[in-house]
Amino acid sequence: MTGGTVEIILLAMVAGFLVLRLRSVLGRRQGFERPPQAERPANYDPRAARPADGAAVEDVAPAGPSAAGGPAGRRVIPDRRAPAGQALVRIQGVDAGFDPSRFLDGAEAAFRMVVQAFASGDRATLQALLSSDVYAGFAKALDAREAAGERQRTELRAVHEVAIEAADLRGTVADITVRFVTDQINMTTGRDGDVVLGSDAVTELTDLWTFQRDLSSADPTWKLVGTGAQ
What we know:
Keywords: Membrane, Transmembrane, Transmembrane helix. This is Tim44/TimA family putative adaptor protein. It is globular and about 55 Å long. 34% of the residues lie in helices and 32% in strands. The chain is of the alpha+beta class. A six-stranded mixed sheet has the order 1-2-3-4-5-6. It has a single domain (3-32, 56-61, 71-229), classed as Roll (Nuclear Transport Factor 2, Chain: A). It has helices at residues 3-14, 16-26, 83-94, 100-120, 123-129, 132-147, and strands at 57-60, 74-78, 151-170, 173-189, 195-214, 223-229.
């Protein structure tokens, strides 16, 4: 197993942290539901988005098919001249094994695993993906859903983009924020089968997940420390 493969697997194994953060913010809103988003122009293309600093970006080809077996989403890495790109260079200076494109492959795999595990109530998978304290809170949300007799349906129809939105290095602590632009169906039904939350309509969602790691640590795990939505 190559170092790059190990990095991707380890990234996927901790990605669930972020989802718990999202659940904590949204309370009983489950299944990655989002508040209504502002209407976008008819010609809006999420794949043409740019990092927050407005700098140039570099498109990179995914390492292979997505975790679902279909084409992987567009990869975007900030130009080396941009603030985020300069931070990535500094991260590579501290951790020679770090590769931004492999990081993004792992980030997409993590996203898919966490979304589906939460929707299906797969505690074994979630426990493997989450730190113990995060899993405890996430399991509580699953307990509440099950006690209410509710079922979650989530379909990840497409991943349009996986992009490094921002990066920072403070001493040996690195932060990388990844933007996911996806098409999803999210719907929660009650005991009687009636829809409680969401609908069967495909909705475009943009999520921001922040990963953090102390590069001086022997532990190669990137912790998920923040979430948001655009």
